[in-house]
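Appendix B. Extra example for self-study. Work through it before the problem class; the solution is given directly after the inputs so you can check yourself.
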Amino acid sequence: MTNRSTGSNPPAPLEGDAHLPLYRRLYQTIAGRITSGDWRPGDALPAELDLARLYGVAPGTVRKAIDELVDDGLIERRHGSGTFIRRPNFDNMMVRFLLYRDPEGREIMPASHIISREIVPAPAAIAQHLGMAEGEDVIRMVRHRHWEGAARLLEDIYLPPARFRPMIEHSPEEIGPLLYPAYERLCGQLVCFIEEEITILDATPEDAALLGLKDGDLVVAIERIAKNASGQPIEWRISRGEARRFRYRISVG
Amino acid sequence: MTNRSTGSNPPAPLEGDAHLPLYRRLYQTIAGRITSGDWRPGDALPAELDLARLYGVAPGTVRKAIDELVDDGLIERRHGSGTFIRRPNFDNMMVRFLLYRDPEGREIMPASHIISREIVPAPAAIAQHLGMAEGEDVIRMVRHRHWEGAARLLEDIYLPPARFRPMIEHSPEEIGPLLYPAYERLCGQLVCFIEEEITILDATPEDAALLGLKDGDLVVAIERIAKNASGQPIEWRISRGEARRFRYRISVG
DNA sequence: GAGTGGTCTAGACCACGAG
DNA sequence: TCGTGGTCTAGACCACTCA
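Solution. Structure tokens for the complete assembly:
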């Protein structure tokens, strides 16, 4: 059988090489419609049987593609009501690890101060992380996060201008305290995956001064690469904070 | 259809409550045969169609159970040759994070010194982690790991005697430098899952002395709970090392 | 070539959520 | 009550490994 659309429209095309499994190509197609903003967080996907008809594949093939999208956290099933695009929430993640709490023990939303935004030539390491050429223009943003009356977290953030020009054109007030919602609202960019590397090292004199640390104190440095639904890197950042009281949980299968 | 064994033996029983999905019960059944030592690392599982016949379920149901066992790292598929029990390798994990290398940059297998082994009443927190009652007997083992001529990692390890009595009956030479292989070899216990929590804190005077740190230096403390194939906790440990140069990578979907 | 997992199909029936 | 996802079945054919 070469075409199983039962008398109705011809099937929609799938992304990806024809030699890839259908469920892989369907995964990429759905991820691409999230990346493009065609489907946005909160939206419902078509029902599985509708997707099967739409793309001309069997229901079991749709199910396998959706299984993997759910595993990767891009979408979410709600039994009886449908399948929905997720909005991951990474922006406030680091604050949790630094274990600061208000007097009642609740988590704090720290104040956010954008110190500078400029376009600079991409250093080699950052260009590589972002899939750009060395020396190509890149947006560099410095941000400090404050709580308990002092700077606690220093962030250097690098963004490709092709996707993120609005981040230098809008005022800090329009951007607000959380970056990832601003990326989505102002630039149509959705962060879906992150990879981090944690290092403990000696504070530089500048960082020590900004964080109120003594000479010889240690900082925790968290390097992060953030990717969109299609797995393309869209942000690189390094954050530094006081190492003491840092805490992190992981589980490995 | 109530019984689909085609004229041959009746199906083998599945673990778990009858109201659970068949693929979940099959997952638990296979995990249980790993825990019990019935199937050991390196062994091949029966072919998927044989498992389907053995347990009286459809091939697709076997496939879904095996998919999840593979996702959880308990088994491994090799296309064309079979499905095999995996042997996870966690024991040396922490050493990687501390970034010590020999002069040629290779990873080091640090020397391992068992300082003490004793049976003590379980403190409340440890009893809870191990699913025991407070005050019940627990094995406490202290181990130091050395490289570059000094102690670099201090480990306090707690084990339930019901599973691990051989660990106090055998000599340190019989145990060898790696604990998890010794658990498997001497006690028939296989570690399949771990959860860790990393904290940076001030060194206690004793830890500072043992690690050669100055007063006020920081240590990284890694608390770990290790579980077998059935998800039962079988070991709790806390390891401390110098915080400086600590490094950790994670990715979050 | 025999046996294995990998992909894909085409359904049936159940459990859940919302109107 | 209807539409959704959740489970389960029963096969076909392909791709890979190894003797």
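Self-check: The longest strand of chain A covers residues 111-121. If your reasoning did not lead you there, revisit section 3.
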